[in-house]
Amino acid sequence: MTTGQFKDGIAAGRLEPARYADNFSDLHPPLDDHEALVEADRCYFCYDAPCMQACPTSIDIPMFIREIATGNPIGSAKTIFDQNILGGMCARVCPTETLCEEVCVRETAEGKPVQIGRLQRYATDEAMRQGKQFYKRAESTGRKIAVVGAGPAGLACAHRLAVNGHDVVVLEAKPKAGGLNEYGIAAYKTVDGFAQAEVDYVTAIGGIEIRYGQALGRDFSIASLTGEYDAVFLGMGLAGVNALRAGGEDADGVENAVEFIAGLRQAQDLSKMPVGRRVVVIGGGMTAIDAAIQSKLLGAEDVTICYRRGKDRMNASEYEQDLATANGVTIRHWLQPKKVVAEGGKVTGIELEYTAEKDGKLIGTGETLTLAADQVFKAIGQTLEAGSLNGGDNTAPELEGGRIRVDGEGRTSLAKVWAGGDCIAGGEDLTVSAVAHGRDAAESIHRSLTSNGRA
Amino acid sequence: MADIRNNFVGIKSPNPFWLASAPPTDKAYNVVRAFQAGWGGVVWKTLGEEGPPVVNVNGPRYGAIYGADRRLLGLNNIELITDRELQTNLREIKQVKKDWPDRAIVVSLMVPCEEESWKAILPVVEETGADGIELNFGCPHGMSERGMGSAVGQVPEYVEMVVRWCKANTRMPVITKLTPNITDIRKPARAAHAGGTDAVSLINTINSITSVDLDNFAPQPTIDGKGTHGGYCGPAVKPIAMSMVSEIARDAETPGLPISGIGGITTWRDAAEFMALGAGNVQVCTAAMTYGFKIVQEMISGLSNWMDEKGHKSLDDIIGRAVPNVTDWQYLNLNYITKARIDQDLCIKCGRCYIACEDTSHQAIANTIDGQRGFEVIDAECVACNLCVDVCPVEGCITMEELQPGAVDERTGKVVEADYANWTTHPNNPMAKVAAE
Q1: Global pTM?
Q2: Where in chain A is CATH 1.10.1060.10?
Q3: Quick one: B356 and B295 in the same domain?
Q4: Is residue B1 included in any domain, yes or no?
Q5: Could you give the C-alpha distances from A218 to A153, A173, A424, B423, in angstroms and in order?
Q6: Do B352 and A45 touch (CB under 8 A)?
Q7: Calpha distance A256→A238 (Å, rounded)
Q8: Are B69 and A41 inside 8 Å of each other by CB?
Q9: What is the pLDDT of residues B57-102, one digit of tens each?
Q10: Nearest beta carbon to residue B351 from set A38, A46, A108
């Protein structure tokens, strides 16, 4: 018996059991051989291709597409993995519409870019299906490196270090590797346990040991790592969540969107995932979109995203915004949370204040609006838990804007310590950028531990 | 409304689009469908002499090469002449001609190279009421091993001899179909002309292997692990065919010899180009085999609308119009100077012009404009080769602009001269010096 959409409060099982599988199936199903060939044929093999320039990992996109077009998906996969060992996940989750596909010359020419992301998935899926490993480890250097966090940055770093002959120990706070690939990201973007399959594929090179349940600042400190290892890479992401700074946000039913998404990803049975009848999501980024759409897909009757600025300032791409509205999510702009309304300790609504921009500054207009809500998700950004960086021995790296400051190679202010991914300043908070950071830091570490890359 | 009725060596058809002798014209069923679709005429697939018909292979007969999106660019075949009884074909030809009197039916023939064989078949074909015959001297596979097809077409003396026999033994117009598998296409054309042919048609298919199966290392189409060369046709052969048509059209030894143009004609535009180069009409096969008979409707309306737009009243206004403009390289005007121009509004910044020029040509395209990605021609390096135009994916984006007399060619530093001057008088030509002395 389903609970139904119209039950007030937060409840599981709002849909017929069969609906869950449909609702959470692959957003972009894989291209079959014919579709891949037709799509690959559309690529113009541009010189110094704009798509390649737009890719944070600089994948040679025209080359990998040409390899698909000529019936060489394995060669294609290697072209991708050479630059991005997590090319499989990036093919699924990259906001290609604001990266490679946005600048595709066929977007310029006819408003229809080559579907680069889906082609990348076609090639990488084939190589992974065949269990094709392209890299052999260099002769052992005898060096040992600690990587903090088994997310995209940490995995990319660990893989490249392993390729270069170093031994890597990855310290992961959670019970599974993958970081946001496993605990973040909407479920319909990475189905069938792909995140774990990718971790297995990446670590199959050998020389990478992942230790679970190991959190920085709790189980070890940076100083303990620099003492034990030849180098350290920090890639633990952002564990903190910004507060609403609105009254009453400790009421029952006010939750962190990232935790909701993580719970959803880990759920064995989605019909047991509770969701509110009326959901309000505060924020304008990908996390807000993922939480809102998935609330809707779990059977919430009414889902509204409230963002304090205009549409053009939302961090979520236009494509993602459209995806949300296509799924029945309402997006409202120029509203900021003022007060959570609760009855008996449970949220019943949220009072929002209209906003405006005056002389470039955001101001509240004083006018308010109250939306009924059984559940309110906070999705207004994650923060670095700076406390964890300092194990009490005054060896924390310098920060910039609340995140770790690094140079062009990923070096922090501390000797022997590199960092990358969402925890560093100036990043784009994208999986693909994290991969680039990890990969480049690994090369920098390799150079510093060897003479010009020679062991 | 332009008049596109065709009169080719006295054979009348409502339009100049005929189906070439090939599988689409092997039997009444197909030909009637073609006429229903609007084709002006057909050349009935080649008949052989009376007796047990030839047999075809029972495996694949065709091979192909493709462009992007698996567009068929070239087709090759190892099919032989008709494998149906002669009498069956004759009976059907007679009936179809009776039912479709306004359409042209020409019968393709291939019999052994003996006068008796030709004397035997000509009257029975004539009896069908067919409008003419086409001598198949072109088939490059199978039949040629038996001393027919291109085995005849490659020997001008045989061509002349057979044409003479035919002219002596039938009142029907004789069209001699030429093989391109020869060094100089004018030689068999001249021979056919000498034998009294009413027209030539060309090209027949080109010797070819389209692909090799890399799993079993056999040419394709593969018959039980083996392959053989086949006859190549389709859009890929059009440039070869047009060159050969033009060579005959401008040959002083065969003035006014009617030509039926064949080779990769797919659209009205292809047809118009062949006719401009001297073809009195055209024959189509691969395009029909790729898309079906309906394409003729596009050809009819396209040709007609273009003629209306340009003020051409009948086909005679366009046939051969480009022939005077086909010349030898040595007569090309060396004072005609152009430069490539890239339309920045149309440019999609793919950079293909740049890399083609940079890697393989004259380093005449810059890849930045004011520090941004953008592509611009460097006049001081541009030799006007046209490669950038050819590789650009956007039609009309790159064009060649003529430098007017008096302008300075930045590449050579010389002023463009108004006078025509060609290689024959160029100071670098040693022969010109000899002539001057």
Answers
A1: 0.91
A2: 33-129
A3: no
A4: no
A5: 21, 9, 20, 86
A6: yes
A7: 13
A8: yes
A9: 999 999 999 998 899 999 999 999 999 999 999 999 999 999 999 9
A10: A46
